[in-house]
Amino acid sequence: MANEAVLGSMWNALVWQQVAALLCLLAVLLKATQIYLSKKRQERILEQFPGPPRHWLLGNVDQIRRDGKDLDLLVNWTQSHGGAYPVWFGNFSSFLFLTHPDYAKVIFGREEPKSSLSYNFLVPWIGNGLLVLTGPKWFQHRRLLTPGFHYDVLKPYVKLISKCTTDMLDNWEKRITKQKTVELFQHVSLMTLDSIMKCAFSYESNCQKDSDNAYIKAVFDLSYLANLRLRCFPYHNDTIFYLSPHGYRFRQACKITHEHTDKVIQQRKESMKHEKELEKIQQKRHLDFLDILLFARDEKGHGLSDEDLRAEVDTFMFEGHDTTASGISWILYCMAKYPEHQQKCREEIKEVLGDRQTMEWEDLGKIPYTNMCIKESLRIYPPVPGVARMLRNPVTFFDGRSIPAGTLVGLSIYAIHKNPAVWEDPEVFNPLRFTPENSANRHSHAFVPFAAGPRNCIGQNFAMNEMKIAVALTLNRFHLAADLENPPILIPQLVLKSKNGIHVHLNKVQ
């Protein structure tokens, strides 16, 4: 009887193993069928948009070499296939890339959510803030945060940004006696981080002098690791990334930044217990972004939760320093590359500043040629080279072609800015494209460095002010020359960077 019981138990175990194996096989077959049907659906949708030929397994990935030419590849495909064409990442996932302003205008004019594939990797760091929110909650946060970018709030920031820029330039002045060139992005990124902490949170980070600070290192780590995860396909899987050394490093960095953010918010809340009115706070110091967040109330009188507060602070830290650092670095590179325009800007700046070494609010509107050079640099080197959307509703374009809800759309800002059907001689650096007359006659969505429509960059005025200040004070003090032996190699990450850095020669203006 005992043997029969053992045999029965073994038989039952074997049956259950076979059932489990069968269920696993069915699950795999079901998943494979779903992937196959999804692929066929995408092919049916996109067959109306001719695009580049793709590899049977890799899609178009094998054509993207990551050698600084993949962005220009989008421009080349635009000339071959028009302003809307599919790009396949592998043979089962595709984006409809839009590279002409007529197509971009349709998508930018809608409140379509950001593509989860592009932005979800940031959520453990920045939370569900304005960058990734959708629907009514996005609209609520957008409305609550908009007062934080009113010119009355931005005005006091000019002196703070001037001080941070001056600290950076003082550091450069010490360095140029010891080294041949300066790598811009590293220093500019610390400066913009310093600025954002002082302006938006009234917080003295001291990061330009103490770049080994744990919080500063964590912010840089998170930017690097988020980009790494986006570019490394196996890391798209949460489990694989979680178990990897990079995943552990990412979680540790998130912990440091969240603890820092929570500390800043709590300190401000404690200080506000004794200063409940905005007027009293403004008498002691400038009104900042964090004040706006803490005082923000919706129509029902509800403020932001602690979780939402942290998300918006971390989102602003990410968007407010990395994108602006990219913009300033590439603008200064253009100034170094085109000395005739650099000199015209310098003459204009010196006429405005005279003997002063800092910028005032009123100065920002008195440097029109410098402003045109900044815009032309943003056209050639947009800080955010592209954005992605997932359609919630069907879209019909101006040419009658339609795509259904669920379609992934990539808007290549870089390719729109380089589209020869829109811009004459797009590779030529020509600031006169941005005279008032030329700007008035241009397509409304031909120049979109801050995106466009309801989901445009809420902080674009802050960013433009910081760019003007940083460029003006730099040119007022230094002559810049490009390092011809080490030209930058473009790499499109979350922001536009250079694989080998952005190196320039600096000489003190006499």
Automatic annotation (TrEMBL):
Binding-site residues for heme, renumbered to this chain: 457
Keywords, alphabetical: Endoplasmic reticulum, Heme, Iron, Membrane, Metal-binding, Monooxygenase, Oxidoreductase, Transmembrane, Transmembrane helix
Subcellular location: Endoplasmic reticulum membrane
UniProt cofactor(s): heme
Top EC category: oxidoreductase
Pfam family name, one: p450
CDD domains for the chain: CYP4B-like
GO CC terms, sorted: endoplasmic reticulum membrane
EC number: 1.14.14.1
Classification via Gene3D superfamilies: Cytochrome P450
Single annotated GO MF: oxidoreductase activity, acting on paired donors, with incorporation or reduction of molecular oxygen, reduced flavin or flavoprotein as one donor, and incorporation of one atom of oxygen
Main subcellular location: endoplasmic reticulum
InterPro entries: Cyt_P450 (IPR001128), Cyt_P450_E_grp-IV (IPR002403), Cyt_P450_sf (IPR036396), Cytochrome_P450_Monoox (IPR050196)
Transmembrane segments: 15-37
Family named by the database record: Belongs to the cytochrome P450 family.
Protein name: Cytochrome P450, family 4, subfamily B, polypeptide 1 L homeolog
Name of the gene this protein is made from: cyp4b1.L
